[in-house]
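Q: Here's a chain of 191 amino acids. Please give me its 3D structure as C-alpha cells.
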Amino acid sequence: MNGRKTVFLDRDGTINVEKNYLYKVEEFEFIHGAIEAIKLFNENGFYVVVISNQAGIARGFYTPNDVHILHDFIQRELRKHNALIDAFFYCPHHPEGAVEIYRQNCNCRKPNTGMIELAEAKFSIDRNNSFIIGDLWSDIKLAENAGMKAVLVKTGYGQQTLEQVEEKKLKITFDAENILEAAKKIVDYRR
C-alpha cells in the first residue's frame, strides 16, 4: 500500500499529564519521555499526528482559539529539542455540550474515524503500518475502527483502561508504561 507509516497520538494523558479540561499553557506538563518519543518517531520516518477529543469546547470551558494557542506552545517546545508534530486535529463536539453549535454527535469524536480521515486528506497514510497510541478505551476502539494497531499507555487513565480491556473486548497490539516505551516498541516492531 502507498503511504507513510503514521503514529496517531492522543494528547491528554498520553503526551501531557492528565489535567481535567486542560487548555492553559501554564498548566501544561509533558509526560516524562514524551519529547524524546516524538523525536524518535521523527527520526524513524513516521508522520506524527495528534488526535484529541476536546469536549471542553462544547461544554463552554474554553474556545477553539485556546486549543490552538496550547498546540502552538507544544510545537514551540518540541522544536527546542528538534522534534515536531506534523499535524494536530481535535474534535470540539459533544452530544451533551452546553454550546449549541458544538452539541452534536459527529464523525470526528473518537472512537469515530473522522480525525483519521482529516489526516488522510492532508497526508498519504499507510493505515496497515500505522499506530494509535492513547490511554482511553476510545483510542483503542478507534484503532480497531480505522484498521490500525493499538497501543495503550499506562499514563493518564491507561491503567484503568488496561483493567477494562477484556470486559470491553478491546484489542491492543501491546501496552507500554508511557509514550517513550511505546515509541521504542513501535520502532522495534517496524524492523
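Q: Can you summarize the key feature?
A: The two ends are 17 Å apart (CA to CA).
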